[in-house]
Amino acid sequence: MKIVSIAISKKKGTRKTTVPTVRLTEDHGIQGDAHAGPWHRQVSLLATEDIHAMQAKGVDVDFGDFAENIATSGIDLPSLPIGSRLRIGDTVLLEITQIGKECHKKCAIYYQAGDCIMPKRGIFARVITGGEISCNDTIQIIG
Fold this sequence. Notes:
Layout: E1 2-8, E2 17-19, E3 21-25, E4 29-30, E5 43-47, H1 48-56, E6 70-73, E7 85-88, E8 92-99, H2 108-113, H3 118-121, E9 123-129, E10 131-134, E11 139-141
Parallel strand pairs: 5-6
Antiparallel strand pairs: 1-2, 1-6, 3-4, 3-10, 5-9, 7-8, 7-11, 8-9
């Protein structure tokens, strides 16, 4: 289980730009990302397998296009119970706070594909312990 991609954006409601490394701040989120702040959805995660499934349907999408911060490999994210904790690399600890979300308006991906996976397959977390993470860092489910 590992990080395949990391992405951030300056504005909410937009696709995110991939970056190799980010710093997470305790109870705030990813530095430089529009979704960071003192709330329960500081970091969003989506499985690479779900992104690849959309690509297999012929949808032209890539990492960051679903506004996910972290794309993972090897974890069935929506099956994790709320309250589960993920250790990323040596120091970062996330706590799952929400599974899926309600989309208040249809995004560009929805109109292109007729569906969007983030509302059903994406999960959200808050930062318990901050630190730096990079692509290819390992992820452990610790509770």
